[in-house]
Amino acid sequence: MMEMEAIQSSQQDMDLIDILWNQDIDLGARREVFDYNHRQKEHELQRQQKLEEEKRLHLLREQEKALLSQLQLDEETGEYIPRTQPSIPLPSAVTPLENVSFTEETGDGMSLDECLQLLAETFPVEDAENTSVSAVTAPVSMHVSGNIMMSPEPPALSPASLSSPQQMSSEVEQAWMEILSLPELQQCLNMQMEDTLETTTYPLSNSPEVQNPNYPDHQLLQTASFYPLTSLPEVKTNILNVSPAEFMNACDGSVPSVAPSDHLSQMKVDATQLNGNFGAEGFCDIFYPNAVLEESSGHHSLDGGESIPDAPNKATFTPMDLYSISPEDEFETGKNNVAPDIPDSDSGISTYSSPNSSSPSKSVNGSGSYGFSDSDMEEMEYNSGSGGSFYSEMFSLNFQPDDLDPALPGSSPAGEPQQLEEEPNQHKVDPAEDGGHSGAPFTKDKSKKRSDLRLSRDELRARSLKIPFTVDMIINLPVDDFNELMSKHQLNEPQLALVRDIRRRGKNKVAAQNCRKRKMDNIVGLETDLDSLKDEKDRLLSEKSKNMTDLKEMKRQLHSLYLEVFGKLRDEKGNSYSPSEYSLQQSTEGSVFLVPRIKKTFKSEDGH
DNA sequence: AACTATTGTCATTGA
DNA sequence: CCTCAATGACAATAG
Question: Is 0.90 surpassed by the pTM of this model?
């Protein structure tokens, strides 16, 4: 009986728990949510995955960098003829930017890698050569460039990409294979190379490979691998002296130099000649912007951005590379020159439209207290053509490219030039959102993007209305200070409305975050409570079962005692009492009586 | 394409 | 009555 009860009660408990669970589930909570350990594990897993992913990306980028560096070197010098000047300046100049702009490198890396791939397929022996050479050169190039990040990886990576997969991590290899597998990229690359060959007859064309359209890649690869060795020292010395224009020219020339030629002088000449028409300009352009940037130190100005639209005719790589390389500068310029110059008609508009389009729908809501919905504000500001428009463009561009940037490093140049163009803007945006230009363009937290986007939008609005304080101030200032600030500055109605909206939104955003955090904390608290309750329940159950066993034992002992006592009882004649006829009973006072059972039966019978 | 998670925003409510 | 924080609900977006 007791056991039954116990089981029943425990069953009831379980039912209760299930009911509670069901309620929670109805409320949208899952059991996993309450499982603290589970969530912790998940968290750990996510973090690990993140780290791995980052590592992988890092490796990829570094590899690309290494390839790029090699490429530069190759471009600078012919295969066998070390042409050092152009190549060295690039690394040094680029160094600061390199960290920032991976996309450009990626693009180059892709092409180079592709070349390598082709080479590997067609010329295994040469590959081996390249590998060894590249391995040797890579470290040198690293040293020269002074790029810390590149130095460790490139030596291992570049060889791996060329011919020794063992050195390559499987992940990286896979990534590269994926990139290489892109048909667009290959096509583009081949076309470019062909164009180059056709338009410009290399002096070295003597080699059969040059004439063969398929070979260019191979040659390029070769040059990349070989140049660094010979050219590096020379490059070092020459770098500083080279002016950007010269550098550019050199870059242009570098590509042709790819073709294996014994005559260095000829190569150089050709290179300069090629500048104008060569599709491979992309490579040079990539580097050139960096140099310019370094020199001008962030004075790129809108020109760079506007130049982008013009770029399309040039090599596909050009626009992307430019942007990627000079995100900071562009951004700064944008900020500084509240650029009336940049009309809505700019290429960015199309991209910009997308974000805007979303907002108009919101405008319908008409939440704005003064009739300014967010969207309305935005549109007004954007259309106004004042400084705001420029920013709007910038930001709009940023949104979409952001995601693409990391995802399609290689494919973008060939497949989607427009997106690539947008990418650079993105980079610009990030620093802007930070509120400082200094922000590293490359830090692209996805989570950050969103907040940045939002902030940027509010910031944008604020700027368009020429509100004299920062969004941060508007949101975070204490009420008194805020009111004081508002009273100090004579703001018109729309400005006031916007400021209030910004403050409200900002506050509410924080409140929502707090609210959610609290919610989560509550859930966690409930979870821990639940755990403790479960523990308590288990404890009580075990205690109960223990008590049951104890009780059983006591009953058993009592029964044996009873039998023992009863068996020792004797009547007057010394006979033992029959258990069926008598029983021992204890009175309330504690005295024990021997009671004949007949009575009982009698009684019971009487009762009947 | 459907689903989920995250985040921002708006409307409402109570202090 | 106003302000503010909290919160539910919705939408946009990314994964």
Answer: no
